[in-house]
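[agent] plan:
  1. take the single chain provided in the ticket
  2. run structure prediction with default settings
  3. attach structure tokens to the ticket
  4. add a short note for the reviewer (M.T.)
[agent] executing step 1
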Amino acid sequence: MTKIELRPITERNFDTWKELARVEYSASAAFNISGDTILPENQMRLYYGNYAKYAFMIGAYDIESSQLVGFVLGDFKTNKIGQINAIYVTLPYQRKKGLGVGKKLLEAAENIMKKDGAKEVQLESTAYAKQFYIKQGYKNKDLSFWKKLKDRT
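[agent] step 2 finished; step 3 output follows
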């Protein structure tokens, strides 16, 4: 049986950004978001390099393969409000019943924020993940959505 280990992502370098991109693109396939899976290095450094500013980064690793299969990034809006900035689980691990990778990542982030004094957690969701968050006790205030616009030709 697959076992998952959570641990902080402490390396904040280009290899880490490539791994985060791989996980994010795999997770995005769950909601049919298309896009290039390989960003030019300068774009990847800019986009994922911004992740280094967050208060914490936690990775979910498949113990057998040592592969990163999910991650959560969190921060604080104020000293009493924590924020989940990103949470992704690769598509194959989303579909493994009973593994609960997303739930484990979310609980780990909540525990860090609670320990640091947060009384509330906020996050934005996709329609795809909305039911997951409701099941974890989150209240739906609103959703943010995005759309890829087609060129006018």
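[agent] step 4 note for reviewer: The CA atoms of residues 126 and 146 lie 9 Å apart.
[agent] ticket updated
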